[in-house]
Specification:
Helices cover 53% and strands 16% of the residues. It is an alpha+beta fold and 179 residues long. The strands form two sheets. It has a three-stranded antiparallel β-sheet. A two-stranded antiparallel sheet has the order 1-2. The radius of gyration is 40 Å and the shape is rod-shaped.
Length: 179
């Protein structure tokens, strides 16, 4: 389908059929190959806002996922402590420090020797403390090491001996000393 102007030019003999066909091909190429119009300032701004919103949503989602994971780990620790706690009985006050404060749990001599050897550990539980066997303590360490308050079998940080340590090394500590 040619336009009427091309037909008139052909009839008048001013152009050849090949020239008309060439022009038609070029016009078809231009129509098909048109690039989309350049984005306006409003479109650019809306795209930027959408990208910012998506980034903010990703950050909030990651934070929610991290909070959910932490809550799940706390629940797992609570369940491990509940199922594996050792019954505390006795009248010996066993002292330990927690967050810079001295705390006590009442135990008997058998529990005290197990605590000293590292077979038992003291873990934070709700508002108090519970005794846990070594196997349960390892599970708690894997989830939240801050819940373990006292573990005599844990590797100690190597600290260089100070002058005070050398001085006090000359004094004997009594075997029956209970702290």
């Amino acid at each position: 389908m040619r336009n009427p102007l091309q037909d008139q030019l052909l009839k008048a003999g001013l152009v050849k059929k090949a020239q008309v066909a060439q022009v038609a091909r070029e016009q078809a190429k231009q129509r098909q190959g048109k690039a989309p119009p350049a984005p306006t300032a409003e479109q650019i701004e809306s795209e930027r806002l959408r990208a910012e919103r998506a980034e903010r949503d990703r950050a909030l989602s990651a934070e929610r996922n991290a909070q959910a994971k932490a809550h799940e780990l706390r629940a797992q620790v609570r369940q491990i402590v509940e199922t594996n706690k050792v019954k505390r009985e006795g009248e010996i006050a066993y002292g330990f420090t927690d967050e810079g404060k001295i705390k006590n749990v009442l135990i008997n001599t058998a529990l005290r020797t197990q605590l000293a050897s590292g077979a038992l550990v003291i873990a934070r539980h709700d508002q108090g403390y519970e005794l846990l066997p070594r196997a349960a303590a390892e599970k708690v360490y894997a989830r939240d090491p801050s819940m373990i308050v006292l573990d005599h079998a844990a590797p100690k940080a190597d600290t260089p001996p100070s002058e005070d340590d050398e001085y006090y090394a000359q004094f004997q500590v009594p075997d029956d000393l209970i702290w």
